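We modelled the chain as a single entity of 174 amino acids. Its sequence is:
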Amino acid sequence: YTAVIDYKIDEGVQYKVGLVTISALKGLNTKELLDNLELKQGKTFNIKKMRHDIKMIENAVGDMGYAFAKVDPNLHRMPNNGIVNIQYDIKPGKKVTINDVLISGNSVTKDRVIRRYIYLAPGDIFSATDLQDSKSALARTGYFEKVDIQTQRVSDNSINLFVKVKEAHTGNIQ
């Protein structure tokens, strides 16, 4: 049996972006962030672009040491003129330092070789970019099939980094 179903969809008002603001945080260059946002004044509102902008702001705040920062978008809709104003509210939490770097999955590669490619060490202030760059650097070595770096909260202002690797088969003669 075959059934045909018709749906009537009312998309409603298509919103354009109005004013976009980012809450102030000492040391954060909000002007530069606003210049790099995908959702800018006059563009059609797009939830995917808004999520990208939230991630970018969280990474910028994460580079300042706030590993658990959250960015909440407050949308102020004006349906009468089809405009939505966006205010990104930053909740940084506390600055976070690295407590320890724990490595697992390596049987051939020595820990010190892996640590060479990790740009965060115990005592360092957390940086989201350094965390991502460390993962990329380890993957580029060719020593590993898989690289995963996870964070574990130790306290309000301290985390451990768990570096999990799966070694690739290198140096085999066949």
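As a brief sanity check on the tokenised model: The first strand starts at residue 16 and ends at 22. The chain has a mean pLDDT of 93.
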